[in-house]
Specification:
The protein is built from 19 helices and six strands. By secondary structure, the chain is mainly alpha-helical. It has two domains: 327 residues, Up-down Bundle (Fumarase C, Chain A, domain 2), CATH 1.20.200; 61 residues, Fumarase/aspartase (C-terminal domain) (Ribonucleotide Reductase Protein R1, domain 1), CATH 1.10.40. Strands 1-2 form a two-stranded antiparallel sheet. α4 crosses α5 and α10 packs antiparallel against α11.
Length: 440
């Protein structure tokens, strides 16, 4: 378990106390349904509603039974007395464990959705405030053409919105209960009891089950968490790259008194983002285990049970932690527009090469000829560190087609910004941008 990274709310959800509280909640819901059906006396139900359990007593019983559900039932039964015979009536262990686990997962997912919503808000705020902040766009790690930092942030926000939607879908898929007895035939408990109990718990009945709720649902959940974690790693990796000394366009927050190295006092390392990356990889590993859990023998085995006690809480705990951690990084992120401008210009204007090529095409050259002519000057600018525009003006093959003013107009960063507002409007962020500008 990753106790070191646990946040209190998520830790409470996956605590043993909450798990056994959920078990008892399911048992009582089933008893309520049996009482409505006349199978359990109302007087017994009143007593059962007061049931509780003692951890130490459960541990003592478990040493004998080697079965956690029977230990739980015996410990609960001792607090109820004679009426305990009505508890777990017609049920099998998985009726309780899987249904209660769905309640735990739903609580955990609700908290993760809150985390994602908070990050989306921060990313959108960053997008709005940096809508026109020019920086170089990179492909293959190499300078391509200018973009804005706001576009990058808006892209991340949209990706997190897709993660949010996927998690909502996974929540719906996992929010099912199963009270169908051994191997799922309802031989000892009726579908009506299942329907009433699940309704009381706020769950949908699994339309069909065997002895367990099918593990494709759990695999969907964990793979969804893994995709979200992978998004966070992608974002964190970008921040790490932008924080490199020779780039330094953005930097994660660094507190007063913080140290980056025990040996080198000057170090300001992106350790928060590196932590996000490391735990994202852990979560992705759990997705493999969740997929393996789908292949159970016949109507069930318990090969899934032991590892789910690790992968379900750990994946939720880890994602909750890194969502919170990365949200903090983005809130305190230092953005350096001057460095972005400096880096934008280190290629001596080569970022305008496509503008030049397209202008030559508009003057009648074939695309291939225009490409070769532009590339010839671009490569010379690269080798000699000579301004690209200066070489183009001195090249008669270019200047005979594009005069100095036409060439100069091509070297205008505003050309790369002309559709930014359209993109932000499409994303519903343009109104936020205008509101932000009004406040300023």
């Amino acid at each position: 378990m990753i106790e070191r990274y646990s946040r209190p709310k998520m830790k409470k959800i996956w605590s043993d106390k909450n798990k056994f509280d959920k078990w008892l909640q399911v048992e009582i819901a089933v008893c309520e349904a049996w009482a409505d059906a006349g199978r359990i006396p109302k007087s017994a139900l009143q007593n059962i509603r007061k049931a509780s359990f003692d951890f130490d007593r459960m541990a003592e019983i478990l040493k004998v039974t080697h079965h956690d559900v029977t230990a739980f039932l015996n410990a609960v039964g001792e607090t109820v007395g004679e009426d305990a015979r009505y508890i777990h009536l017609g049920l099998t262990s998985s009726d309780i464990m899987d249904t209660a686990q769905a309640l735990q997962i739903r609580e955990a997912v609700d908290l993760l959705l809150e985390d994602m919503a908070a990050l989306i808000t921060v990313l959108e705020d960053r997008a709005v405030s940096n809508k026109d902040t020019l920086m170089i766009g990179r492909t293959h790690g190499v300078h391509a053409e200018p973009i804005t930092f706001g576009l990058k942030m808006a892209l991340w926000a949209q990706e997190m919105k897709r993660n949010y939607a996927r998690l909502e879908e996974a929540k719906s898929s996992i929010s099912v209960g199963k009270i169908s007895g051994a191997v799922g035939t309802y031989a000892t408990v009726s579908p009506d009891i299942e329907a009433k109990a699940c309704s009381a718990l706020g769950l949908v009945c699994a339309p069909i089950s065997n002895q367990v709720i099918q593990r494709d649902r759990h695999a969907q959940l964990i793979t969804t968490l893994a995709i979200a974690a992978s998004s966070l790693e992608r974002f964190a990796t970008e921040i790490r790259s932008l924080q490199r000394t020779e780039i330094l366009e953005a930097e994660e927050p660094f507190a007063k008194g913080q140290t980056g190295s025990s040996a080198m006092p000057h170090k300001r390392n992106p350790e928060l983002c590196e932590r996000v990356c490391g735990l994202s990889r852990l979560i992705r590993g759990y997705s493999v285990t969740a997929l393996e859990n789908m292949a159970l023998w016949h109507e069930r085995d318990i090969s899934h049970s032991s590892n789910e006690r690790v992968i379900l809480p750990d994946a939720c705990l880890a994602l909750d932690y890194i969502l919170s951690l990365f949200t903090g990084v983005m809130k305190g992120l230092q953005v350096y527009p001057d460095n972005m401008k400096r880096n934008l210009e280190i290629t001596q204007g080569l970022v305008f090469s496509q503008n030049v090529m397209l202008a030559l095409v508009s003057k009648g050259l074939s695309r291939q000829d225009a490409y070769e002519l532009t590339q010839r000057n671009a490569m010379q600018a690269w080798r000699t560190r000579t301004p690209f525009l200066k070489l183009l003006k001195a090249d008669p093959d270019v200047s005979s087609r594009l005069n100095a003013k036409e060439l100069g107009d091509l070297f205008d960063y505003r050309r790369f910004l002309k559709h930014i507002d359209t993109v932000f409007e499409r994303l519903g962020l343009l109104k936020k941008t205008r509101k932000s500008q009004t406040k300023r």
